[in-house]
Design goal:
Elements: H1 2-19, E1 30-37, H2 41-54, E2 58-65, H3 67-75, E3 82-84, H4 88-92, E4 98-107, E5 109-113, E6 134-137, H5 142-154, E7 162-164, H6 167-175, E8 181-185, H7 186-192, E9 197-199, E10 209-216, H8 222-233, H9 235-243
Parallel strand pairs: 1-2, 1-3, 6-7, 6-8
Antiparallel strand pairs: 3-10, 4-10, 5-8, 5-9
Helix pairs in contact: 8-9
């Protein structure tokens, strides 16, 4: 009888262990995967923090990169419940994988230089001055496509030293002293603060990027993803975006 009792006890322990979560104390925890354009890093980090405060047991896992790069990753099976793009073109590439995209913000371009603007850049044309090293985004990325549109509108082709895969990479090259100037979004320039000097050109006002957001068709938790989208579109999300310099939808 004693042997039977021990066997029953051991079996009970095994069953209890089998019913426990692999995450131990994190049993019941949920992760929401959000892929967002590089220019949204500061704002979506703040929005994700707010979302986690409102949803006990939920962790928002953020992935930032150029919109085109993120689209390719999603198509290749990268985990994503929500996607926020810096333009409508890249959202459209997902086709019916993106569920009812909605515009949540707008943005425009600006020139950034080293602090104090030592090269004396005052207009778009000045980016082609002798001795000026300029970096821009790849045309596949929204910031690059917008830059190309500005070039077409003005008839000025920028002789760029390199084309980067995200607006963050452009910003990094300028702040690291690897380039004299770059073209980024207004919001990126504001976030950089005194690390850069901002130079505006009237031509930028005519090219406005609209940012769409959507849950994804194969999302692990579509309802939770929809709640994240609602936060972005709602008063709290819009306040965070406006404070960062984004325009209204």
């Amino acid at each position: 009888m004693r042997g039977l009792a021990v066997a029953v006890a051991v079996t009970g322990m095994v069953l209890a262990a089998g019913c426990s979560s692999d995450d131990g104390n994190d049993a019941g925890a949920v992760t929401l995967d959000v892929s967002a354009a590089a220019s949204l890093k500061k704002t979506f980090t703040a929005i994700a923090d707010e979302f986690e405060k409102q949803h006990d047991g939920v962790t928002v896992r953020l992935s930032f990169d150029g919109s085109s790069t993120l689209v390719n990753q999603i198509r290749q099976g990268a985990p994503a419940d929500v996607f926020a793009s810096a333009d409508e073109k890249n959202m459209a590439k997902l086709g019916d994988l993106a569920v009812d995209p909605e515009i949540f913000a707008t943005n425009t371009l600006v020139i950034i230089t080293a602090p104090g603007n030592p090269q004396g850049i005052n207009t778009l044309a000045d980016l082609n001055k002798p001795g000026v090293t300029t970096v821009v985004c790849q045309t596949a990325q929204p910031c690059g496509a917008a830059t190309e549109m500005v070039e077409k509108n003005t008839g000025i082709t920028i002789d760029a030293a390199s084309e980067e895969q995200s607006v963050s990479a452009v910003l990094t090259k300028v702040t690291a002293g690897q380039a004299d100037a770059g073209i980024v979004y207004v919001t990126d320039a504001e976030a950089a603060g005194d690390k850069v000097t901002t130079v505006t050109d009237p031509a930028f006002a005519a090219v406005v990027n609209s940012y769409p957001i959507a849950t994804l068709k194969d999302a692990e938790d579509g309802d939770l993803g929809s709640e994240f989208v609602e936060l972005v579109l709602g008063a709290d999300g819009q306040r965070i975006l406006t404070e960062a310099g984004f325009g209204a939808p």
